[in-house]
Amino acid sequence: MLLKSIKGPSQVFLYQILKLRIVFSILLLTTLIGCAGLQFKAIKKQVLNDFKSEKLSHQHTGFLLVDIGTNDTLFNINGAKYFIPASTAKLFTYYASLKLLGDSLPSLKYIQENQNVTILGTGDPTWLHPYFKNELPIAFLKRFDSISLYLDNHEGEKYGPGWAWEDYPYYFSPEISAIPLYGNVVTVTPNNPLTVIPDHFTTAFQNKVEGPPRDWKANQFYLSKQNKDTLQIPYITSKELTVKLLSEETGKPIGLLDSIAPKKWKILPGIPRDSVLKQLLWKSDNFLAEQLMLLCSSKISDTLSFERARDSVIGKYLSDLDPMPRWVDGSGLSRYNLFTPTAMVNVLKKLYRESDSLQLFTSIPQWDSNGTISQGSGPAKSSFIYAKSGSMGNIYNLCGYLRTKSGKVLLFSFMNNHFRRPSSEVRQNMYAILKRVHETY
C-alpha cells in the first residue's frame, strides 16, 4: 500500500532513504546487542576464573545471579550449598513482618475492666526506644487507676541459640523480652553530670579504666573517664524490673500476675510497621529483628515464640524453598543459621514480586565499594546495588538487587564464609564483580 501511494521521483528517493535508515538502525541495534552479549560472555569467563583464583581457594564462596525479568540464571556457583548468613538472615525477618504484620505494630493486648487494665506483651520493641521514643503505650496506661501485667507469655530464652556469650554487654546484643523498654539498653552520655536513660540506673554506674561496661550477672555498669561517646549498654531484664520501670514511667500501681485465663484481647495499635522495618535493614538492628519475630508470633497466638512465627511464615509462604534453610533466630547473630544462596534469591524474588517496589528499594540500603551506607536522609544516588550485608568473624555476605546500565534488575546472593583475609578485600572483590555485571549486562 505504501508503494502504491508513492508518486514521483522525489517521493521514491525519500522512500529509499527511509528504508536505508530503518535497515541501518536494525543493523546498528543488532551489532550493539551482539557486542554487549560478547562483552558479557567475556566478563562471565573472567568472573569464573576469579572464583578459581588462589585468593578464593581457601574460603567457601557462593554466588547466584538471576535476571528477574527473564528468570535466567546468569551465575550459579555453589548456589545450593549452605552458608552462615549473618545479618542477611534479616531479609527473612523482613519478609515475615511484611506477611504477618499489618500497617501498624500491635503495641499491646489488653482487657479493660472499669478503671483497671490487664495487659499482655506483644514484643513491641519501640516502647521508649532510644530511636523511636514511642510513648503511645505509656500514655494509654496512664489513663487507668491500676494496671495488671502478665509477663510469662514469652516462650524462649533471653538470648538466641548459638549467640556468643561474651557479647552480653554490647549494644548489638540486648536481651529478648515480652515487653521491652528503652530498647532493653541503658543509654549513657558522659556529660557533667552523667546523663542516664532510664535514670533508674543512674546510681548503678562506676568509673573503671578498662574491662566490659557491665557485670556479667548484675546491672552494675562501668564507664571509663576517657570515654566521650554516648553508649548503649544492655541491661539484665526481669519481670520485677519491668514492673518497676513501668510504674516509674506511668506513676501507676502495677500488679504482676502469675497466671491468666484465655481472653478475647483488644489490641492497641502502635507505630507504623514500615518505619521499624527500614531501621531494621539500614541499621542492621539485631534487637528489632528478634522482637519483630515475636510480634509476628503475637498475630497468630498469645504466646510469643520465634519458632511459632518462623514455622507459620515457612508453612504459608516459603514452603517452596529447596533446600530449606536452618533458620534459628531473627537477627542472624547465631552461627547455627544455615542458608543457601538459592534460598536468599528466592526470598528476594518474592519480595520484588509481592511488595511495593518503591517501599522495597527505600527500605533496603544502597551499598558502595566499601560496604558502607549513606548516613544522610536518603541513600547515595550513585549506587547501583541495593542489598543487605551480613558480617561476623570470617564471614561477609551480600544479598539484594543490582540495577544494570541497560535498565535490568538482577537478583543476587554473594556469600563468603571461613576466610582469613581482611573483610575489606572481600568487599572490594565482590564490588568489582558486581560492577562488571552492572556495566555489561
Any key phrases for this structure?
441 residues, 2 domains, alpha+beta, six-stranded antiparallel sheet, five-stranded mixed sheet, 34% helix, 11 helices, Beta-lactamase
Describe the structure in your own words.
With 441 residues, the chain is of the alpha+beta class. It folds into 2 domains: 186 residues, DD-peptidase/beta-lactamase superfamily (Beta-lactamase, 3-Layer(aba) Sandwich), CATH 3.40.710.10; 204 residues, no CATH class. Helix content is 34%, strand content 20%. It contains 11 helices and 16 strands. Strands 2-1-16-15-14-13 form a 6-stranded antiparallel β-sheet, with helices on both faces. Helix 2 runs antiparallel to helix 11, helix 3 runs antiparallel to helix 6 and helix 3 runs parallel beside helix 7. The chain is globular, with a radius of gyration of 27 Å. About 2% of the residues have low confidence.
Helix run count: 11
Total tally of structural domains: 2
Nearest-integer average pLDDT: 90
Gross morphology is globular
**SS-derived structural category:** alpha+beta
Regions with pLDDT < 50 over 5+ consecutive residues?
A: 373-381
Give the SSE order as H and E letters. Answer: HHEEHEEHEEEEEEHEEHHHHHEEEEH
Strand composition percent: 15-25%
The first-to-last residue Cα distance is 40 Å
Cα radius of gyration in angstroms: 27 Å
Please give the number of β-strands: 16
Adjacency order of strands in the biggest sheet = 2-1-16-15-14-13
Helix content: 25-40%
The main β sheet shows up as: 6 strands, antiparallel
